[in-house]
Design goal:
Structural class: alpha/beta
Number of strands: 26
Distance between the termini: 37 Å
Strand order of the largest sheet: 3-2-1-7-19
CATH architecture of the largest domain: 3-Layer(bba) Sandwich
CATH topology of the largest domain: FAD/NAD(P)-binding domain
Shape: globular
Number of helices: 8
Strand content: 25-35%
Bound molecules: flavin-adenine dinucleotide
CATH class of the largest domain: Alpha Beta
CATH superfamily of the largest domain: FAD/NAD(P)-binding domain
Length: about 400
């Protein structure tokens, strides 16, 4: 088969899917690219959904990614999820009953919010992943609303800040000892808690919700301590689940997303199957001998670029890249007027030290692994001052 007769099917119409399509074209692939997405929208930017867009506006036109001319000929198949992969037939089946054939497959299905099995009514219960989720939240949160957020990770804390700005009374319930403790550690997490408390947020740490109360709509929640909190809006933000169920029974390792090699090619697959973005469990020179799934905005682009280059080479019958994959995980978070920025893997650290400022003001915190090597850095309101760290990590390439 000529390369121009080959068809790449990308499942997942988000940032990772788009960047992979662009990278395929940038690396000379001239066959058909089709993208199947369960949402009705072409790829858009998710970070504003918990931040400014929730308070200002949620138009898809404003949030959608600009697309390169090279992908103007992509076939978009939107509004129906892929339910099953059949590697023998080289096809996927969609929820609407149709099938799509492929020569190569890219998994770009991301993650979805994890849900707790809490008894009681579900009206008034929200999660936040999509523009539709954000629209329904925006409609629900009114000045004076009682908002209970379950989970104190980034999304929980960003939502707490935005809901407070919108005039709501916000309670955050979390099993953790401090907000954002996993990625930031207890000291900086505690400092962010104090910032939230000064703005009026109440934390219930070391606690979970055991019951939603109300007739059909939740009107209060009961904590495992027995305390009851009034609730008009409840948001579950307790972590994520990779969207990979549709791939099962095909010999892929799906223990934590799709296990891939340095080219983002699924480990053990005879067919060209690649995985990018939040759903890819990939190696990285920076991770040592571990593979990781990293849910930061820059990783779909980095993994998509690598997958596109490798897949274009595989389809052309050329040598695949042989260098180790290297990408610097980076995230930011806006909460009230505070700007958090991070490089590297602070979540993998054993110790940390404040090297500039103090935790209750602008500051820089360095994070060290068990070998006492710098593995990450987080700054609050020090975006410029953090740039040398970026350079330092990039030099590890
Ligand atoms: C509210 C919010 C705020 C965020 N803020 C930040 C931030 O401040 N900083 C930061 O670094 N990162 C942030 N992120 C994370 C960042 O947005 C993600 O890392 C990024 O969107 C991942 O891209 P992706 O393409 O892998 O997955 P997604 O963007 O999730 O795209 C996957 C797409 O696949 C679709 N899909 C899933 N299953 C199927 C199926 N079976 N068939 C077809 N389609 C399917 C999904 O519906 C989705 O449209 C935030 C995320 C959210 C939700």
């Amino acid at each position: 088969m000529q390369v121009n007769e080959k068809r790449v099917l990308i499942v997942g119409g988000g940032l990772g899917g788009l960047r992979t399509a662009e990278a395929l074209r940038a690396n000379g692939f001239i066959g058909e690219i089709a993208i199947v997405g369960d949402e009705e929208y072409q790829p858009y930017n998710r970070p504003p959904l918990s931040k400014e867009a929730l308070s200002s506006g949620l138009s898809h036109d404003e949030l959608k990614f600009r697309q390169r001319d090279s992908v103007a000929d992509v076939t978009w198949i939107l509004g129906s999820a892929v339910e099953k992969l059949d590697t023998d037939k080289r096809e996927v089946t969609l929820a609407n009953g149709t099938t799509q054939k492929f020569d190569a497959l890219v998994v770009a299905t991301g993650i979805r919010p994890r849900l707790l099995p809490i008894p009681g009514p579900t009206q008034g219960l929200h999660t936040l992943r999509t523009i539709d989720d954000a629209r329904s939240l925006k409609e629900a949160i009114k000045p004076g609303s009682n908002v209970v957020i379950i989970g104190s990770g980034f999304i929980g804390c960003e939502l707490a800040a935005t809901a407070t700005k919108l005039g709501a009374t916000v309670h955050v319930v979390s099993l953790d000892d401090q907000p954002m403790i996993m990625p930031m550690g207890a000291d900086l997490g505690g400092a962010m808690r104090r910032r939230h408390e000064e703005k009026g947020v109440t934390f219930h740490l070391g606690r979970t919700v055991s019951q939603f109360n109300g007739e059909t709509h939740i009107d209060s929640v009961t904590l495992d301590s027995g305390e009851t909190l009034p609730a008009d809006v409840v948001v579950e933000a307790i972590g994520s689940v990779p969207n990979t169920e549709w791939l099962k029974d095909n010999g892929l390792n799906l223990d934590n997303g799709v296990l891939v090699d340095s080219n983002m090619r699924a480990v053990g697959s005879t067919l060209p199957i690649y995985a990018v973005g939040d759903a890819s469990n990939h190696p990285n020179k920076l991770y040592g001998d571990k593979t990781r799934r990293i849910e930061h905005w820059n990783m779909p682009t980095e993994t998509g670029k690598r997958a596109g280059a490798a897949l274009a080479a595989e389809l052309a019958g050329s040598q695949l890249p042989t260098d180790e994959f290297f990408a610097l995980p980076a995230f930011w978070s806006d909460q009230y007027e505070f700007k958090l920025q991070s490089y590297g893997l602070p979540g993998a650290a054993s110790t940390n030290t404040v090297v500039s400022g103090d935790l209750d003001g602008p500051c820089i915190v360095e994070y060290f692994n068990s070998d006492n090597e710098l593995c990450g850095v987080i700054g609050i309101d020090t975006v410029k001052e953090l740039m040398p760290y970026r350079k330092q990590f990039m030099e590890m390439k």
